## 1
Amino acid sequence: MTQKMILNFPAGISGTPITYELIRVHDVKVNILKAEIQPGQIGSLLVELEGDQEKLEKAKQFLISNGVRVSPVSSKVSYDEKRCINCGNCVSACFSGALTIGAPDWKLHFNPEKCIACKLCLTACPQKLFRIEFSTIN
Ligand code: SF4
Ligand code: SF4
């Protein structure tokens, strides 16, 4: 199985080889989809981890015990659904297919499992409804 998640590394550990340890010690495949890392500051990764459920759970515990903040994409990327006018601008910008509009309700739908935190929806939305907290620790 695969799980997509955002990892935020506090400043003190951003230089340590944690993803390497995930692969070598925990036998989990790590696919890095996006990275924002600056030496001495918070580092952030969007990763897809692949392994069986037990290995993934141990890998997550290993990350947390090393001070890494582990968040599902849905907690970091969201939009204000109540104010959405379903204009479709963000759907055109979202090349990963995470945002869709279609039958039967013709309302915007967000699939966090397809989101790659590219932030293109931020500028595409005329209502400025998107919130993306990729590089923040909260
Ligand atoms: S951040 Fe990128 S991939 Fe995610 S919903 Fe917005 S446009 Fe789509
Ligand atoms: S661009 Fe904004 S208003 Fe338009 S469908 Fe997307 S979220 Fe809704």
## 2
Amino acid sequence: MKGPWEERDGVLRYRTRGGVDLYRLPVRLFPELDGYVYLIVADSHRILVDAGSGLPESLADLRQGFETLRSRYGCPVGPADLTAILITHGHIDHFGGLSALRAETAAPVFIHELDRRVLTNYPERLITVAREIRAFLAQAGLSLERQSALLSLYLSMKSMFSSTSVEGLLAEGESLFGILQVIHTPGHCPGQVCLRLDEVLLTSDHVLAHTTPHQAPERITRYTGLGHYLESLRRTAALPGIALAFGGHEDPILDLYGRVAAIEAFHRQRLERVLEICREPRTIAEISRALFGRQYGYGVLLALLEAGAHVEYLYDRGYLQVVNLDQLEQEPEAPIRYRRL
Ligand SMILES: [Zn+2]
Ligand SMILES: [Zn+2]
């Protein structure tokens, strides 16, 4: 993709109007997920934004990126030179590489307070969230056997990260190091932040160029959910003067405002579609199947959570009703059936 930046050996560089150099380093994160780590260079600051997944290929790509900075851009920065590491949100594809990086740098780690404990006590977040997911899956209409299979897949991530300390917080509206502005955009993740550098916005997983970022119900993790997400999109659309945006995955975004409008329209359509599906009483598992077809492995959980986020949004706002109240009164564990009002 061409744009107002240069690219050498896969590493992109953009100089902002204020003279800050932003480098984008490509990393393989998981077998089917690629993304980016960013390095901000201004005066004495060497700020890494996100750390990759921590899998061997992600760490190898990060090292290769640093090597390209040195050999192709004459910018000799390695882990030991970093002055800060900012984690845009508490998802493992963005912070998993911290464990390995911290052995090589004394740079302080920053994250939004709503995701702080994901880093400082990773098993706590996984195990407490798993309890909520189990209740969600039961109410969504999955058999005990399928609940257990999905939960063990979810909990298998427990060994992927050793908890670490957090030295600083990314707080809404705060200006960091005189060059960055923090915008808290909860929805995709409770502590999701976007970072503004002059006319550039690092959107992380809040806004992506092609994919509509994944949503999950707020009943599982507070400050996620479609309501918060749509509010955050509106706040993003109201930021003045963003000429270029870079996400945590996928291409740069040349028209952020257009992209935000397209994502909002996409969710409005999906909400309409859920109402359509709920002309007859449906469980969340049935709604997920109607929306996404048959899914496999982790995809099953992602589809159920996405469907659940839309059902929750509609139910909370009075567009859906629960039709099997008598059954639920007798059997509190029974699946919930929703119908449009
Ligand atoms: Zn994410
Ligand atoms: Zn991501």
